[in-house]
Amino acid sequence: MFQFCTTCASPHIRFEAQTRFQCPDCGFVYYHNIAAATGCIIHTDKGILFLLRAKEPALGKLDLPGGFVSPGESAVAGLRRECLEEIGWDPGPELSFFASFPNTYPYQGILYNTCDMYFTLSAPALRKADLCREPEEIGGIQFIQPAELRIEDLAFDSTRRVIQAFLDRQG
Ligand SMILES: [Zn+2]
Predict the structure, then answer these.
(1) Is the peptide bond before 57 cis (omega within 30 degrees of 0)?
(2) What pLDDT, in 10s, does the model give residues 78-93?
(3) Distance between CA 121 and CA 117 in Å, rounded?
(4) Domain 35-170, what fold?
(5) What is the Å distance from ligand 1's center to 11 Cα?
(6) pTM value?
(7) From ligand 1's centre to the CA of 15, what distance in Å?
(8) How far, in Å, is the centroid of ligand 1 from the Cα of 4?
């Protein structure tokens, strides 16, 4: 990611332990820590709400509402903001923590390691008409019943793991 030290311009800067850039010449250290991200399983009587990704990574695959947590935000506040941005709907504060999985997110040549935190919300009567899709990032909104869901259509490793865990817990 960095080819030169941003402090002394040395070309000897090294990336160590998957977390930090360290310059042996001037001692500069930069931590490239994991990013916190959230996702929400909104389940309705029409199925689970999925978003069709309109951009890379995982273009055309199914994703859950959510995204990166911004500086100064809690996980729940970040997730509510992302839902408002992506589907024009606030899930409210009554989100239940469900599970967390690690994920990787390649973006413009940089691999971000994330800690994805998933929440669930039961919203039986929610319909497409209640939602407003963000057109640049979201290609469509779909409700899919668990029996019709194909795990290979899901966008990310963490998405596949959390949906599988959710379906397993539903019995
Ligand atoms: Zn340096």
Answers:
(1) yes
(2) 999 999 999 999 999 9
(3) 14
(4) Nucleoside Triphosphate Pyrophosphohydrolase (3.90.79)
(5) 8
(6) 0.89
(7) 13
(8) 8
